Amino acid sequence: MNLSNFRDPQAARAVAEAIATCSTRPVRLMEFCGGHTHAILRFGIPDLLPPTVELLSGPGCPVCVTSADDLSRAIALAGIPGVILTTFGDMMRVPADRGRSLARARAEGADVRIVYSPLDALEVARQNPTRTVVFLGVGFETTAPMVASAVLSAEAEGIRNFAVFSTHKLTPPAMRAILDAGEVRLSGIIGPGHVTTIIGPEAWQFLPQEYGVPCAVAGFEPLDILRAILALVEMLETGQPGVANAYSRSVRAGGNPAALEAMERVFEVAEADWRGLGVLPASGLRIREEYARYDAARRFPVEVQPAREPPGCRCGDVLRGVLRPVECPLFARVCTPQNPVGPCMVSAEGACAAHYQYGRPHPTPSGFAARRRRGWGEEA
Q1: Alpha-carbon distance 55 to 177, whole Å?
Q2: Taking the complete model, does pTM exceed 0.70, yes or no?
Q3: Does the residue 18 lie in any domain?
Q4: Does the structure show a pLDDT above 60 at 30?
Q5: Taking 50 as the threshold, does the pLDDT of residue 361 lie above it?
C-alpha cells in the first residue's frame, strides 16, 4: 500500500473544500478511536475543517478505559509468589490507587514483563514451566482475537501454566452509553477502523436506526479521516443517517469471520468496568467456563479495596467527551507525559497525550481560512 496516496495534499484540499461547501449547520462529531485522535492532531485536520464542524475525542483508548480497580487486581496478581505478569508497555505506568502502578510493583520485586503480543506471553510460559504466566488482556475487539488464539494454542499444546486476566471490552456498548447519558450532544460518529475490521460495519447500524446518528468508519490516514467526515456531513445535510465505510480497503461486510469465531470460542459477553463510564452490562469479555483453567480471575481470586482516582484527574470526563484535555486544570501543568497523573496522558492512544504532543488548537474560522490560503501537505 502506498501511503502517499492517502496523504496527497491536492486530494486532501479537494475533500476539505467539499466539506466546507456541503456543511451549512454546526455539527459535533466524535472520533471513537484514540488512534484517530492522534492522526487528526498530527496531520492538522482541525485546521482544514470549516467552523461548522467540531471534533471530540471518545473512549477508544483501551489503556485509558481500564478501570483503576482492574489495574489494582493486576498489581495484586503480580504480587502472588510464583506468578510472572506479562503486559503491554503502555500499562506499566498507568496509576491505580495511591500512586501504585505495575512499574512500581516491578521496582518492589514483582516479576512484571513487557510483551508485544499474547503469543509472546505464551512463549514466556513455555520457557518457565514451573511458574504461572498471567497475561493482562487489555483492549477491544481488535486484540481479543489474538488473546483467544493464545488460549487455544495453550490448550492444543497442553500448556497449563498460562492464564489471562481479561479486561477486554466491546466498543458498541460504550458508544451507546455515551449517547444514552446525554452529557454531550453528538451529530455523528467516526467509527473505529481496526475494530470494525473485526466486527464489520453492520455492528454500528444501531446508531442511525435507534439514535438517528450517522456513522462513518475511517482509516488512519488524512484522506481516510477527511472522507469519513465528508460522508457524515453529507448524511447530516440530507437528513439520511446511515453507516458509511470510508475504510473499504480493510473493512468488509461481516468483519473477519476467523477472528470472530476465535473470540466466540474462548470468550462470552459479560459486564465490564470502564474508567469514566462505570460498570456497563454486556460490554466486556470473560473467558468461558470450558477454558476456566486459563482464566486468572478464577485461578487467583484476589480481593482489592475500591480504588480512588488520582486527585484532580479528569480523564474520565475526557473519555466521555464532556471535557477537552486542555480544559483539565492539570493538563501540561502538573500532568505531562514525563509525569502523568492519569492514563489519558500515559497511553500512546490517550487524548491528553495527543493534545500535549501535537498542541493543535481547536478549529476556528481564522485557522481554517489561513490553512486554505497557504495550502496543505505538511505534518505537525
Answers
A1: 19
A2: yes
A3: no
A4: yes
A5: no
pLDDT tens across 196-210, in order?
Answer: 999 999 999 999 999
Range of the domain at 106: 24-372
Task: Write out the chain in H/E/C secondary structure.
Answer: CCHHHHCCHHHHHHHHHHHHHHCCCCEEEEEEEHHHHHHHHHCCHHHHCCCCEEEEEEEECHHHHECHHHHHHHHHHHCCCCEEEEECHHHCCCCCCCCCCHHHHHHCCCCEEECCCHHHHHHHHHHCCCCEEEEEECCCCCCHHHHHHHHHHHHHHCCCCEEEEECCECHHHHHHHHHHHCCCCCCEEEECHHHHHHHCHHHHCHHHHHHCCCEEEECCCHHHHHHHHHHHHHHHHHCCCCEEEECCCCCCCCCCHHHHHHHHHHEEEEEEEECCCEEEEEEEEEECHHHHHHEHHHHCCCCCCCCCCCCCCCHHHHHCCCCCHHHCCCECCCECCCCCCCHHHHCCCCHHHHHHHHCCCCCCHHHHHHHHHHCCCCCC
- pLDDT tens, position by position, 169-194: 999 999 999 999 999 999 999 999 99
Would you say residue 2 lies in a domain?
no
Q: Is residue 4 part of a domain?
A: no
Q: What is the CATH number of the domain that holds 96?
A: 3.40.50.11740
Residue 5: inside a domain, yes or no? no
Q: Into how many domains does the chain fold?
A: 1
Q: What is the mean pLDDT of residues 234-245?
A: 98
pLDDT tens-digit profile of 316-352? 999 999 999 999 999 999 999 998 999 999 988 999 9
